[in-house]
Automatic annotation (TrEMBL), chain A:
Name of the protein this chain belongs to: EARP complex and GARP complex interacting protein 1
Assigned protein family: Belongs to the WD repeat EIPR1 family.
One example of a Gene Ontology biological process annotation: regulation of transport
Keywords, sorted A to Z: Repeat, WD repeat
SUPFAM superfamilies xrefs: WD40 repeat-like (SSF50978)
Claim: Cytoplasm is one of the keywords in the record: no
Domain EIPR1-like beta-propeller: 7-301
Listed Pfam families: Beta-prop_EIPR1, WD40
Biological source species: Hucho hucho (huchen)
Repeat positions for WD: 226-262
UniProtKB/TrEMBL annotation, chain B:
Domain of life: Eukaryota
SUPFAM superfamilies, per database record: Cullin repeat-like
PANTHER family according to UniProt: VACUOLAR PROTEIN SORTING-ASSOCIATED PROTEIN 51 HOMOLOG
Domain Exocyst complex component EXOC2/Sec5 N-terminal: 50-275
Protein name: Vacuolar protein sorting-associated protein 51 homolog
The organism of origin for this protein: Hucho hucho
Length: 389, 840
């Protein structure tokens, strides 16, 4: 069966920020934030019609500044947060803020990407609240509590991790607690991830070559993987099904998988990219599927069977099996389980800074390169059926 | 007519001479007497003729008639006269003959008469003699008859005499035995007793003999007791012992018991020998560790001397004096002692034992059939037990032999050990001892190979450490002299390169020498004059599996693996390994791949005449491994060097406030530093690697490429950015540009040449520059500064890379990205940039 061709969407501006709309579980929808110093920045809402292979987009204006990071609320489809650059008095400051999409965007502004005229009067995002961190420096990312009610966010600002409580329909943000990274030199968080396990009480952050785990109840460090990567750690992701497993990537071109109970050695290390790896994402459902994006302009989909929560394939209840499928199951279990690269996607021409799985369809993902090209790809069908059956 | 014939006859006769006539006369006489041998044929021819006057059938009538008929008268007359004449002569002849014969008759008659008288006398004498003889016979018979009685008597007397003498011997026996006992002439006593024993046994029913027998038994028991005592005492020599045993055997002692005793006695002595050997083993245990440490010190010392001495692996220099200075005996002495004391006494024991129990002629009631069988069985058990002890001692001693300095000593010791065991093999054909001994030798050889491998490995690591130190030493001096920019970080290669090729050649030469000397040492095991060298193990497995695989191949693999480890351990933080070492090792591995491995293996195969019965590692596989290691090292070198430069660029981008920077006056120092470092890396790599191919340059690359991102084209690239109406164009242009350029793999494997290495390093550095720029926001002067910097890099970096377009493209991208990230993109005039860059 032939795999569907990738779907490519071009933005007018350079872009780094990509997220799927976490709270949306029906439509395949990605949010992209642009980076432009000269024009009003935008948030593109990309809807993908899987059946017809058609992309439709909506554009919301983000006039506050160029977007470095974007994340969507897990509870409310209309709420999202951004980190953006604000230039004032020849100073560049990065701020975080929570925004709300105007309620009408969905009804009126659907348009085909081929029609440029409608994009001249896009609607503005509505500001809910600033994650005011002037005291704590530049925000590098804003993290929502996974699977939460959209009331708690963490922002990473320079060497601080700030836990915010959003109240009054998210219009009010107050710092409930904070942790500060202390040490020699100018320490700075480069990225972080809120663990979905342990009742969402853990946070992992990256600074320079180290990965640290934090307990949010006490705001204290619980582990630290020094020299996790030879160079800067660029991104982290938690295995959604195995609570101690963590993936990281960095400037040494490697992707490493850690069991945080044993931080001396990575469980697994991949070196498939030929330049810095900027983003790593576990598939939300099938954690053997790992997506990485790199500044060598490639996206690589790997099948890490050996360290996944389904090392023996998808577990099917006996009740569900008809006799015919029984045989099939036997056959499959004989196949050797090997970690492998499933596919390398080379549709990008520039560095890929973000990759993201769709929150609605586990077999679909998007990648965004600096030149503003968004590519939507699917997991090869052969593999999909192999995992499912 | 008759007359004619007669006339012819007569006519012929007269001229006949006398002898003829005489003969004719004789013939006739002979005829007469019947002696007609001669004339027979003639007679027969003529005899039938009746007319032949001389023939026997002569008929005078016929003859006369014939004459009358045939002859004339004259002729008849002649015939007649002739006849008369003949008759006359015949008569005279006859008279003469008669006369002669008459005399003879007379003398004969006289003689006969005389004889008759003599015979008569003789007959009388003979009669007298026969009567005398008869008398003598009669007398003789008479005498013999009278002597008969006396003769019988004498015979009887002599028989009695003999018996009496025997009896006397018997009666004297107890006394004699006692005396023998006193004099300790045991063998005499035993032989005497043996002679008497049967007789005594036979006549034991007679009281007197019984007494004697009892006495003898008592004495012999005593004697046996004494012999046993002597046997037990064990003070006596082996010869004495064997005599004892022989005597005891003759005294009907049970052979089995004797065997046991003999062996136990021998055992005690042999064990004493073994204890002596063991005593030599014990004391050095305390001083053992020091001698073990010694070889590890050796190679380091040797390497430093390597370039001058030429033979760094001289096995005698470090190991031996240390050993001999300690009080312990060396292994050769130990084995010697073991051979001379233990093995030779063992051989003696075996020989005398076999003489006594196994090979002795089976006689009398001793000859029970299974004695030799039983005896051999006991002997085997005995020898095996002792040999096991001996072997364990020898093995302990061999295990202590850890110094790899002088192999010949060990080989000679093993040879001696093995050789002496052959004597045992000859004496005791079925014994397992020699094969066990061979096994020990084989084990020792295996152990030796392992030790040599370990020594080679430690030598290699020590050599590397020395190289590291050599690399580090000049660098320290150099960086302090260079003014020590804080940006330098672990910058290397500024001063070290001068000695890089020398270090490489001395390193590889010393390793090769060490391998050769080890091979030479190991080769001793297979020397022709060594007894065990013709064992199948040493001919086959030792050479192929032992030397080739375990030693040489494993060492080469070790070199590759340890080289690879430098890449892995150094993966974090740019590495503790100096990049120059990586480069040097990479070249070393590459050299191994191209020639050294083949050389070493060929050398090994030739020296050891390896016949590969079992599969061995192919040269190609090893070469592949070495090449893999070389590639990995070089890749890692590129990565490390690229990282060092990247770090400089990154720091320089990250730490500056690009929005509020001042107008560029000159190229930033870090760019100069980048170019400097690149140049020194170029020099460093150039020392070890060939130039490599690059695409053709135009006559003035720096100028030409300079225009690529300046002038009109530069303007078209920036222009759309100002125009709000068409923001897409920038990307479009950039994408079109990328469509036609190949994708650049930044951290990609490099080729084994200078250009490729430098290209890799520059790619990494510039890509880092690009990514860092994209994370910043620039003011107008920030952009201009980047323009100046990139122009400067452009001027210098193109010469290092294989494809200058690569540099153009990346620098273009940097400036392009900077322009995008610029709040106020007002590019600097190209001419101004050039002026600044040329000012330096």
């Amino acid at each position: 069966m032939e795999d569907d061709a990738p779907v490519i969407y071009g933005l007018e501006f350079q872009a780094r920020a990509l997220t799927s709309q976490t709270a949306e579980s029906d439509a395949i929808r990605f949010l992209v934030g642009t980076q432009s110093l000269k024009f009003d920045n935008q948030i593109h809402i990309i809807d993908f019609d899987d059946e017809n292979n058609i992309i439709s987009k909506s554009v919301l204006l983000h006039q506050a500044g160029e977007i470095w990071h974007i994340s969507a609320s897990p509870a409310d489809k209309a709420v999202l947060s951004t980190c953006y650059n604000k230039t004032s008095e020849s100073r560049v400051v990065t701020c975080g803020a929570v925004w709300s999409m105007p309620p009408e965007w969905e009804s009126g502004s659907h348009e085909s990407p081929d029609d440029p005229h409608n994009s001249h009067n896009p609607q503005n995002l509505e500001l809910l609240c600033h994650l005011d961190n002037s005291a704590h420096g530049n925000a590098s990312s804003v993290l929502w509590e996974p699977m939460g009610d959209g009331k708690r966010v963490i922002s990473l600002a320079d060497n601080h991790a700030l836990l915010w409580d959003l109240t009054e329909s998210s219009t009010q943000a107050t710092i409930s607690s904070s942790a500060t990274l202390e040490g020699k030199g100018q320490l700075k968080f480069t990225s972080g991830k809120w663990s979905p396990h342990h009742n969402c009480t853990q946070l992992a952050t990256a600074n320079d070559t180290a990965i640290r785990g934090w307990d949010l109840r006490t705001m204290s460090q619980i582990y630290c993987i020094e020299n996790a990567h030879g160079q800067l750690v660029r991104d982290l992701d938690f295995n959604p099904n195995k609570q101690y497993y963590l993936a990281s990537c960095g400037d040494d071109c490697k992707v490493k998988f850690w069991d945080v109970r044993n931080i001396n050695e990575p469980v697994k290390s991949l070196e498939e990219h030929s330049h810095w790896v900027w983003s790593v994402r576990y598939n939300h459902s099938h954690d053997q599927l790992v997506l990485t994006g790199s500044s060598d302009s490639r996206v690589i989909l790997s099948n890490m069977v050996s360290i996944s929560s389904e090392p023996f394939g998808h577990l099917v209840d006996d009740d569900d099996l008809s006799d015919g499928e029984d045989n099939h199951q036997d056959e499959k279990s004989k196949e050797p389980l090997q970690d492998s690269i499933i596919s390398t996607y080379e549709e990008h021409e520039d560095s890929v800074y973000a990759v993201e799985w769709s929150s609605a369809d586990p077999w679909l993902f998007a990648s965004l390169s600096y030149d503003g090209r968004l590519v939507i790809n699917r997991v090869p069908r052969a593999l999909k059926y192999h995992i499912l059956l | 007519m008759d007359g004619d014939i007669c006339a012819t006859d007569t006519a012929t006769t007269p001229p006949d001479s006398d002898p003829a006539r005489k003969r004719r006369v004789h013939g006739m006489l002979k005829l007469y007497y019947g002696l007609n041998e001669e004339g027979k044929t003639v007679d027969q021819a003529e005899s039938m003729n009746p007319c032949d006057i001389n023939g026997t059938h002569f008929d005078p009538e016929v003859y006369l008639n014939k004459l009358r008929r045939e002859c004339s008268l004259g002729e008849l007359m002649d015939q007649e006269s002739c006849m008369v004449k003949q008759i006359r002569s015949l008569d005279s002849d006859m008279q003469t003959l008669v006369y002669e014969n008459y005399n003879k008759f007379i003398s004969a008659t006289d003689t006969i008469r005389k004889m008759k008288n003599d015979f008569k006398k003789m007959e009388d004498e003979m009669d007298c003699l026969s009567t005398n003889m008869a008398a003598i016979t009669e007398f003789s018979a008479h005498i013999s008859g009278t002597l008969q009685d006396q003769h019988a008597q004498i015979t009887k007397l002599s028989g009695v005499h003999t018996l009496l003498r025997k009896l006397q011997f018997l009666f004297e026996l107890p006394a004699r035995l006692n005396k023998c006992l006193e004099l300790q002439a045991y063998s005499q006593a035993v032989s005497s007793h043996r002679r008497a024993r049967c007789v005594l046994q036979q006549y034991s029913h007679m009281p007197s003999f019984r007494g004697i027998q009892d006495d003898c038994h008592a004495i012999m028991d005593k004697l046996a007791q004494e012999l046993r005592q002597k046997f037990r005492d064990g003070g006596s020599s082996a010869e004495d012992l064997s005599e004892c045993v022989e005597l005891l055997l003759q005294l009907d002692e049970p052979a089995e018991e004797l065997c046991d005793k003999f062996l136990s006695h021998a055992q005690s002595r042999l064990e004493a020998n073994l204890r002596g050997l063991e005593a030599e083993l014990r004391p050095p245990l305390s001083s053992g560790p020091t001698s073990v440490i010694d070889p590890s010190i050796g190679p380091a010392r040797r390497l430093s001397a390597a370039p001058t001495a030429g033979s760094p692996a001289d096995p005698t220099s470090p190991g031996n004096p240390f050993l001999s200075s300690s009080s312990r005996t060396d292994i050769l002495e130990f084995i010697d002692r073991g051979c001379n004391e233990f093995v030779s006494s063992l051989c003696l024991v075996i020989a005398s034992y076999q003489e006594l129990f196994v090979n002795r002629p089976q006689e009398g009631n001793l000859a029970s059939k299974d004695i030799p069988h039983m005896a051999i069985g006991k002997l085997h058990a005995f020898v095996d037990a002792l040999a096991t002890c001996y072997f364990s001692l020898v093995e302990r001693r061999i295990q202590e032999e850890k110094s790899v300095g002088d192999n010949s000593l060990l080989v000679r010791a093993l040879d001696r050990f093995h050789r002496r065991l052959q004597a045992v093999a000859k004496l005791l054909p079925g014994s397992a001892v020699p094969s066990q001994g061979t096994e020990i030798v084989v084990r020792a050889a295996r152990e030796r190979i392992k030790q040599y491998l370990a020594a080679l490995q430690s030598f290699y690591l020590d050599s590397l450490r020395d190289v590291r130190q050599a690399l580090a030493a000049p660098r320290l001096g150099g960086s302090s002299a260079g003014g020590g920019s804080h940006l330098a970080g672990p910058a290397t290669g500024k001063d070290a390169p001068a000695s890089l090729p020398e270090l490489l050649s001395s390193l590889s030469a010393s390793i090769l020498n060490q391998i050769k000397s080890v091979l030479a040492s190991v080769h001793l095991f297979t020397a022709k004059d060594i007894t065990f060298s013709n064992k199948p193990y040493f001919k086959g497995e030792f050479c192929s599996q032992g030397v080739r695989e375990s030693l040489v191949v494993n060492f080469i693999k070790f070199v590759c693996q340890s080289s690879r480890q430098f890449c892995e351990s150094a993966g974090d933080r740019g590495g503790s390994t100096p990049p120059a070492l990586l480069l040097l090792l990479s070249r070393l591995c590459l050299d191994y791949e191209t020639s050294t491995i083949t050389y070493i293996l060929t050398l090994t195969d030739e020296q050891f005449l390896v016949q590969h019965h079992s599969p061995v590692t192919a040269v190609a596989a090893l070469c592949g491994e070495a090449r893999g290691a070389a590639q990995k090292l070089l890749n890692h070198y590129v990565k490390v060097q690229g990282l060092i430069i990247s770090q400089m660029l990154r720091k320089s981008v990250e730490t500056r406030d690009w929005v509020n920077t001042i107008e560029p006056r000159n190229v930033r120092a870090v760019m100069k530093r980048v170019v400097e470092d690149t140049t020194s890396i170029d020099v460093q790599v150039g020392l070890l690697y060939e130039e490599g191919v690059r695409k053709a340059h135009s006559s003035d690359s720096s100028k030409r490429t300079f225009s690529v991102y300046s002038g009109s084209r530069q303007q078209t690239r920036y222009a759309p950015s100002y125009a709000p109406s068409a923001p897409m164009d920038t990307n479009l242009l950039s994408n079109i540009h990328k469509l036609f350029s190949e994708r650049i793999d930044i951290f990609s494997p490099v080729e084994f040449n200078k250009v490729s290495v430098l290209t890799g390093i520059i790619k990494i550095s510039l890509k880092t520059f690009l990514e860092c720029v994209r994370l910043r926001t620039f003011g107008r002067y920030g952009l201009q500064q980047i323009q100046v910097d990139c122009n400067y890099l452009q001027m210098y970096l193109w010469r290092f890379v294989s494809d200058e377009n690569l540099v153009h493209f990346l620098l273009d991208e940097i400036v392009g990205s900077t322009a995008h990230r610029c709040l106020d993109p007002a590019p600097m005039e190209q001419s101004v940039i050039e002026v600044i860059c040329e000012r330096g």
